[in-house]
Write a structure and sequence with these properties.
The protein is of the alpha+beta class. It has a single domain, classed as GAF domain (Beta-Lactamase, 2-Layer Sandwich), CATH 3.30.450.40. It contains four helices and six strands, in the order ααβββαβββα. A six-stranded antiparallel β-sheet has the order 3-2-1-6-5-4. A hairpin with a 6-residue loop joins strand 5 and strand 6. The longest helix is centred in the C-terminal third of the chain and has 18 residues. The model has no long low-confidence stretch (mean pLDDT about 95).
Length: about 160
């Protein structure tokens, strides 16, 4: 559970990161870096952009991943888009359709990024943790705020 004070502090760091960058790619990367730097359970933080029926990997912080393109409906990320809802998975090893980015990953949270006016999904923030049950509703609420912050930037990413 993240306290309100920490949530506000992390969100402020993300606001500063987003506004201090020159390009949308740099801004989104700065935000993912701020999340990873301020929250020790956030071991891999990335943004996927929805292009047609596929999620394409955008800026991220963490170990390299082979999952640079994920079809809608596959894995936790694709399921979030298909079901049009955020996903919190306490133990990824319990999922039959899990796409493993790292053998160290035990939990995952995916929060959708929506176009500000129309509310349609344009991407997502994906966070992996090395411990089971690393994420809860407080993480989801923080990442929803961050998703709103980066939505105008994500809509300008060309991947």
């Amino acid at each position: 559970m993240i306290s309100r004070a920490i949530t506000d502090s992390v969100f402020h760091a993300c606001e500063e990161a987003a506004s201090s960058s020159i390009s949308p790619v740099e801004a989104v990367h700065s935000v993912t870096s701020a999340l990873a730097a301020h929250l020790p359970t956030y071991k891999w933080v990335g943004v996927y952009v929805l292009k047609g029926s596929e999620l394409r990997l955008g800026p991220y912080v963490g170990d390299p991943t082979e999952h640079t393109a994920i079809p809608v409906g596959r894995g936790v990320c694709g399921t979030a888009v298909l079901e049009d809802r955020n996903q919190i998975v306490d133990d990824v090893r319990s999922l039959s359709n899990y796409l493993s980015c790292s053998a160290k990953t035990r939990s995952e949270i995916v929060v959708l990024i929506r176009e500000p006016q129309a509310g349609v999904v344009i991407g997502q923030i994906d966070v992996d943790g090395w411990e089971p049950g690393a994420f809860d509703r407080s993480d989801e609420m923080l990442l929803e705020r961050v998703a709103g912050l980066v939505a105008p930037l994500v809509s300008r990413l060309s991947l």
